[in-house]
């Protein structure tokens, strides 16, 4: 009887031990998922420039590059350069023009002159620039026509492009006008300015 009781207790102990063993290994096999707290992402706000840099050249007291507040006008740039030299007229410059970054202002550029180039075929004459420059942001269609290689159609295209897209940032922007090839631009670039 005692042996049976001992065997029974021993068998029960082994059974309980096996249950605890299987439970312990069963819990260990389940991976613990770590809790991840998402870090909020911050996108930096775009930096809005508060200044522009312009080049003031020509007949001013101190030609050079100047940093001006955003929204400055041509008159402010000329004032920053020490104003125009005595006797220099500013009538060819729109003093109220709002400047853009990288713009150049030429004070006292020679007056635009033209010569009559007679056409051998028709005997008609067309006035084209031989010296001086034209401001492409303030020029009229007639003034565009004075540029070498620019006719009525191309002058109208340049004017229409400026009207649709705003002021030209650089003279190289003329190449964006439909029909303005590299050779045509090379012929007129020394006669234009911003």
Defining key terms:
194 residues, alpha/beta, Ubiquitin-like (UB roll), DNA polymerase, domain 1, 2 domains, three-stranded mixed sheet, two-stranded antiparallel ribbon, 5 helices, 31% helix, 18% strand
Please render the helix and strand layout as text.
Elements lengths: L1 H28 L21 E8 L5 E6 L4 H7 L23 E4 L5 E6 L6 E7 L2 E2 L5 H5 L6 H14 L16 H7 L3 E2 L1
Parallel strand pairs: 1-3, 6-7
Antiparallel strand pairs: 1-2, 4-5
Write a brief structural summary.
This protein has helices at about 1-30, 75-80, 140-145, 150-165, 180-190; strands at about 50-60, 65-70, 105, 115-120, 125-130, 135, 190-194.
Write a structural description.
The protein has 194 residues and is α/β, with parallel strands linked by helices. The protein folds into 2 domains: 51-107, Ubiquitin-like (UB roll); 113-193, Photosystem II 12 kDa extrinsic protein (DNA polymerase, domain 1). The chain contains 5 helices and 7 strands. Strand 1 (51-58) and strand 2 (64-69) form a beta hairpin.
Please report the first level of CATH classification, the CATH class of the largest domain.
Mainly Alpha
Q: Determine the CATH topology of the largest domain.
A: DNA polymerase, domain 1
Percentage of residues in DSSP E strands: 15-25%
CATH homologous superfamily descriptor of the largest domain = Photosystem II 12 kDa extrinsic protein
Our count of helices gives: 5
Strand order of the largest sheet: 2-1-3
Q: How many angstroms separate the termini?
A: 117 Å
Query: What is the CA-based Rg, rounded?
Result: 40 Å
Multimeric organization:
single chain
Helix content: 25-40%
Task: Provide the low-confidence segments as ranges.
Answer: 112-125
Largest sheet, in brief, is: 3 strands, mixed
Shape: rod-shaped
Mind telling me which CATH architecture of the largest domain this is? Orthogonal Bundle
Chain-averaged pLDDT = 79
Number of separate structural domains: 2
> What class, by secondary structure content?
alpha/beta
Number of DSSP E strands: 7
What string gives the helices and strands in order?
HEEHEEEEHHHE
């Amino acid at each position: 009887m005692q042996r049976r009781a001992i065997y029974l207790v021993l068998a029960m102990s082994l059974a309980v031990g096996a249950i605890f063993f299987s439970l312990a290994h069963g819990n260990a096999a389940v991976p613990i998922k770590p809790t991840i707290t998402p870090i909020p992402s911050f996108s930096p706000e775009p930096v809005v420039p508060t200044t522009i840099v312009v080049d003031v050249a020509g007949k001013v007291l101190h030609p050079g590059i100047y940093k001006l507040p955003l929204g400055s006008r041509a008159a402010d740039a000329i004032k920053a350069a020490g104003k125009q030299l005595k006797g220099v007229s500013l009538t060819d410059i729109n003093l109220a023009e709002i400047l853009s970054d990288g713009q150049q202002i030429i004070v006292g550029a020679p007056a635009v002159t033209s010569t009559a180039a007679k056409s051998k075929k028709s005997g008609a004459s067309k006035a084209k620039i031989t010296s001086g420059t034209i401001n492409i942001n303030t020029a009229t269609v007639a003034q565009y026509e004075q540029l070498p290689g620019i006719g009525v159609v191309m002058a109208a295209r340049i004017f229409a492009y400026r009207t649709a897209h705003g002021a030209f940032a650089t003279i190289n922007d003329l190449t964006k006008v439909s029909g303005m090839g590299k050779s045509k631009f090379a012929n007129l670039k020394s006669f234009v300015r911003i």
